[in-house]
């Protein structure tokens, strides 16, 4: 017996970049030390990961085919909409326009332009309201990652007591840089994992929008190392949290080693929801699998002491009825939490 429900959306992935074959900027290894070295190198040149240029791609049938295959795979996995969380190369947008001219895309595509590639004039000209392909805003990058110990934390890491991470953008700099995009009505999303970075981003958002922050609904991407006061501020300001369902499981050992007792306040999606924060989700593919049912299982079943959500709440965080519907081989509510990834996708119907 099949089950039809709101379609899965991935509000934070790097599907276009991966499909196009762009290499990881830190090199072929995903070793935390290599990533940390790259983060510090970026900081040393007063840049951020969202301001680093990519090797430009050529817009041709090869690129269009690669992007179409990536989007088709996303649909097969159960997604009806994806958001590219930092488009560094406008060639990807041009290639997607070519695909769109032929008809509907396999899934709806939303683009957050990387801050280094963002151009207000070009973005305004590209704003069409097309439900299949739309630029929605700009993405900034405030700090590093937890695993390489480069996220900006308010107290040093337990296993690296002389290190409190990397802060690429302080509140004043971020506010100055995002202000033109806020004035133009674009969505602003900022990568912030550590509590020191989250606090800086909230300060910047409050400085730019003030009491109008909730209406603008700026986003914080990841929001992993939380504190109760930051959760309250996010709720009061109306800031959206874009979380990654698999991170609380994948990062569990590293979070405990790096944060000690502070790990108890990390990845607390339940506390964000209880406080009234709007929570959306994305895989951060290729860091985590693109398959939404794999993320749903981790979010609902967890592992060890990883925070979890009830299936109803997890589905609400991961789906959007306005973006389309998904047909599954079984009702997620009737399947054991640790078996959710075994449900098969029968069909996806993106809203056009």
Description:
This protein is of the alpha/beta class and 352 residues long. It has one domain: Metal-dependent hydrolases (TIM Barrel), CATH 3.20.20.140. 38% of the residues lie in helices and 20% in strands. It is built from 14 helices and 10 strands. It has a 10-stranded mixed beta sheet. Helix 4 (90-102) links the parallel strand 2 (79-87) and strand 3 (108-114).
Topology at a glance:
Elements: E1 3-13, H1 15-19, H2 32-44, H3 61-76, E2 79-87, H4 90-102, E3 108-114, H5 120-126, E4 133-141, H6 171-183, E5 187-192, H7 195-209, H8 213-216, E6 219-222, H9 228-237, E7 240-243, H10 247-250, H11 252-259, H12 269-275, E8 279-281, H13 292-301, H14 311-318, E9 319-328, E10 345-350
Parallel strand pairs: 1-2, 2-3, 3-4, 4-5, 5-6, 6-7, 7-8
Antiparallel strand pairs: 1-9, 9-10
Largest sheet: 10 strands, mixed
Figure out the total of helices.
14
* Strand-residue proportion: 15-25%
Parts with pLDDT < 50 across at least 5 consecutive residues: none
CATH superfamily: Metal-dependent hydrolases
The CATH architecture can be given as Alpha-Beta Barrel
**Given the C-alpha coordinates, what overall shape results?**
globular
Judged by helices, strands and strand pairing, the structural class is alpha/beta
Number of strands: 10
Classified by CATH, the class is: Alpha Beta
N- to C-terminal distance: 27 Å
Order of helices and strands: EHHHEHEHEHEHHEHEHHHEHHEE
- For the residues shown, what is the average pLDDT? 96
- Gyration radius, in Å: 19 Å
Largest sheet: spatial strand order: 8-7-6-5-4-3-2-1-9-10
CATH topological fold name? TIM Barrel
- Domain count, please report it: 1
Helix-residue proportion: 25-40%
């Amino acid at each position: 017996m099949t089950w039809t429900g709101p379609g899965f959306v991935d509000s934070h992935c790097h599907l276009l970049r991966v499909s196009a074959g762009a290499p990881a900027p830190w090199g072929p290894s995903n070793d935390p030390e290599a990533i940390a070295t790259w983060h510090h190198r970026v900081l040393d040149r007063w840049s951020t990961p969202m301001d680093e240029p990519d090797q430009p791609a050529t817009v041709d049938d090869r690129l269009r085919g690669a992007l179409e295959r990536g989007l088709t795979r996303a649909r097969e996995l159960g997604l009806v909409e994806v958001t590219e969380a930092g488009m560094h190369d406008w060639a990807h947008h041009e290639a997607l326009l070519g695909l769109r001219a032929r008809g509907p895309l396999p899934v709806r595509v939303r683009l957050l332009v990387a801050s280094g590639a963002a151009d207000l004039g070009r973005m305004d000209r590209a704003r069409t309201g097309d439900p299949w392909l739309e630029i929605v805003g700009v993405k900034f990058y405030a700090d590093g990652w937890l695993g390489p110990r480069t996220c900006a934390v308010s107290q040093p890491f337990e296993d690296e007591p002389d290190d409190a991470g990397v802060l690429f953008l302080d509140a004043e700099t971020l506010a100055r840089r995002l202000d033109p995009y806020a004035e133009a009505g674009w969505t602003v999303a900022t990568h912030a994992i550590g509590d020191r970075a989250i606090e800086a981003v909230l300060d910047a958002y409050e400085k730019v929008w003030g009491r109008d922050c909730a209406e603008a609904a700026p986003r914080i991407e990841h929001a992993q190392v939380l504190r109760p006061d930051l959760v309250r501020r996010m709720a009061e300001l109306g800031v959206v949290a874009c979380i990654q369902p698999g991170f609380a499981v994948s990062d569990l050992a590293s979070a405990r080693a790096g944060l000690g007792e502070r790990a108890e306040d990390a990845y607390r999606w339940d506390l964000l929801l209880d406080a009234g924060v709007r929570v959306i989700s994305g895989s951060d593919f290729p860091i985590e699998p693109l398959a939404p049912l794999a993320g749903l299982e981790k979010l609902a079943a967890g592992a060890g002491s990883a925070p979890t959500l009830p299936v109803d709440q997890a589905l609400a965080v991961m789906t959007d009825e306005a973006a389309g519907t998904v047909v599954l081989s079984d009702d997620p509510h009737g399947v054991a939490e640790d078996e959710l990834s075994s449900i098969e996708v029968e069909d996806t119907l993106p809203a056009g």
